[in-house]
User: Which sequence fits this backbone?
């Protein structure tokens, strides 16, 4: 089977982004968005998803990080969908509960072809470093809608905002890794409709 990989670029008046994604990687991540905490989260996503991930983003950070974070989500979602191809042989569903110290976050995903997000992650503060914590949801939403993936994220415990959001990114990574893995027992498209 050919490598499941894609490169997506997006240039607007607000951002200039390139994302390279390999689904069957080794967890390597080379990320530079100009938003340090977001870089850390994307590195965790690549590492725990066992993807090969490269992100280069320049955005209007003098305004704030919103456009950069959302547009990276768009590009990563498009790259994920392209890398999956026709989705033959994938497991389709994945879930993970990830603890990080006192925090615990559950992620469940369905590579359904229909983007949907239920984001029930409670974070006690609004800023981590320079990162607006509301942007985590914006990233997940942009990713899911462009990837055609249903994503449920639920925080089950936690007090430290850094731990909660990092557990969310790691849980999402593990769930996506499971869902896009190839299963030799799956023949064709994993759907009774015959299409995803």
Assistant:
């Amino acid at each position: 089977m050919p490598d499941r990989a894609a490169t997506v670029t997006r240039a607007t008046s607000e951002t200039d982004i390139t994302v390279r994604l390999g689904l069957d990687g080794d967890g390597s991540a080379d990320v530079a968005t100009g938003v340090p905490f977001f870089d850390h989260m994307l590195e965790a996503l690549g590492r725990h998803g066992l993807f090969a991930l490269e992100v280069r983003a320049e955005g209007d950070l003098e305004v704030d990080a919103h456009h950069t974070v959302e547009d990276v989500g768009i590009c990563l979602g498009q790259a994920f969908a392209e890398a999956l191809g026709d989705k033959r042989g994938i497991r389709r569903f994945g879930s993970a509960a990830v603890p990080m110290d006192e925090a615990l976050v559950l992620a469940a995903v369905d590579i359904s072809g229909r983007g949907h997000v239920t984001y029930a992650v409670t974070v006690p503060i609004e800023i981590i470093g320079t990162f607006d914590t509301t942007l985590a949801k914006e990233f997940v939403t942009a990713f899911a809608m462009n990837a055609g993936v249903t994503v449920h994220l639920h925080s089950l415990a936690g007090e430290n905002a850094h731990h909660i959001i990092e557990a969310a990114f790691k849980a999402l990574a593990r769930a996506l890794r499971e869902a896009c893995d190839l299963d030799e027992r799956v023949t064709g498209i994993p759907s009774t409709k015959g299409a995803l």
The CA atoms of residues 115 and 148 lie 4 Å apart. The mean pLDDT is 95. The chain has one domain: 5-180. Helices lie at 36-49, 66-84, 135-147, 161-180.
